[in-house]
Write a structure and sequence with these properties.
mainly beta; six-stranded antiparallel beta sheet; 4% helix
Length: 330
Amino acid sequence: MPIIRNIAPNPSIELNAAGYSLWTGSGTLTRIAIPADAPQGNCLLRARATASQSNFGIAFDSMPLSAGPVTVAYRARSNQVGAYVRTRFEFRDAGGSLIGAYLYAHGGTPLQVGPMNREVATVTAPAGSASMRLVAQLVASTGFPLTVPADATLDLDAVIVAQLPEAPAYFDGDSPGWVWDGAPHASASLGPDGIYTPEAQLLRAGTAVDWIDLVPGYEEAAAAGTVVQVTADPARAPYVTVRPGRDARGTLTMHFVRETGKGRPGDRAEAAYRSLSSGAPHTLQMRDSHGGLGTPLQLVPAGAIRRTREARSDGAWTVEFDFHRTVVPT
């Protein structure tokens, strides 16, 4: 899973409160501009009760997903000292019918009046799931609904909803290296996965040449035909990009750092260099640390293959080549 998606369409509430509603009871739900307090951007979402009530919370609009692990993370606070928040999960099938019972995840730390806690909950969406609705609800330490007075508030910001078994750091389409999947602040966000450890395997005619050692930072979006690879130094920005489309030009840089069964870094770089120098099409196959495989991309070398020993103390080598075409094999 080299590319991850935050399916929350308005994760930092920068433009409006679209995608959220007051869950039950009477109250208001507004976007509040508090740059000093907002964990992300300049705004946060505030629900305010206008009468004493229980079941006070913020409901998220329905979001599409499929069966499997799903993790929700968000920042929250309340002016009710000692209050907790729990997340309620509601899964429905393609016809809109509820699947099973509601699932609940109770936050283990009381909310603060000032700083915003990060609440994280992971559950498994049941088979047949096509959509999910969430509620962030104020509760007592026991997990049962809390009766709140008029003027009670619940603030929320920095929402992540991802089909992952654990929570990534916050991101949205404005984060470096990320894009909006549609209108900014009104659609899902896509970007490189900071949890999974991706690798890329170089193959020629279906036979493995070697695994590339650039473990952090190899990302792939097969549907868009886009590849981004960053340098071995995580502090540097991405410098290799294949533009979207079935026909493209670009440069691929491969790092060989570790000694493996195929030899030392220099030996491995030599083998890749000789294979690529043949001019034959090579396939790049992505995998991640959880065993997932990405869609292969076929790269046709164009021009000279460049092999360089890196200016590093670990004897790493780099093999780089230009290519004039990238296709997703069918």
